[in-house]
User: Fold VPS10 domain-containing receptor SorCS2 from Ilyodon furcidens.
Amino acid sequence: LFASTDLGRKWTLLQERVTKDRIFWSVSGVDLDPDLVHMEMQDSSGGYLYVTCLIQNCSDKMVTAQFLGKIDHNSLLVQDDYVFVKVTTGNRTKHYVSYRRNEFVQMRFPKYALPKDVQIVSTDESQVFLALQEWYQSDTYNLYQSDSQGVYYSMILENVRSTKQPEENVLIDILEVRGVKGVFLANQKIDGKVTTRITYNKGRTWEPLTPPTTDMNGKPVSCKVPDCHLHLHLRWADNPYVSGTVHTKDSAPGLIMGAGE
Assistant:
């Protein structure tokens, strides 16, 4: 990991053995120092640690461990008020969260939940949205919502579809609408059938999309609620001939562009 303070003319080596894409800059209003860097790095024994340092002095002696003990490789995430890490011992995995840089607490899911994988969806407005894959799920995740500290979770939507990308990346078919807080679109898969659902209140209630009355050529659409709804391609399109997914922008609140049927 290198840093430059003169627009890239000169580069200073901060640390070696840093995990790719697990480096996070100081968060304004949460971290005390604007020059702080959060990172996941490998120690001499081959294990991984969550550490921070200041870019002016990031030698081994000046690195501060922020989590007691080793963490799973590729598990550090610093986002808004929250820091997330994962620790696996034997075949048991525990997920931890730190709220506003306080001590780490184990994340608490309902008793019946046995997480195989957890993906953070959103950390807006002091609340964590995450997708959790149960032991029995293969191509779907359940959506959970937290309290303000990110510790306690309750389920808000079941069976949101997912796909595995190259390099083991997982895509969850849920989209946060930009420009309007609390609005999410999700594609729910039940018995092989995919239905697009929308929430306007941050997951408390979900409903299907009302279909348009005419198609793009102005011809009437024979799609009547409640037997028929509009379905959108959110993160990816199953059909290679369909162009684009859903687009939203902070600078255009309320405007959603998408392709679907």
In short: Residues 169 and 215 are 35 Å apart (CA to CA). The longest strand covers residues 153-164.
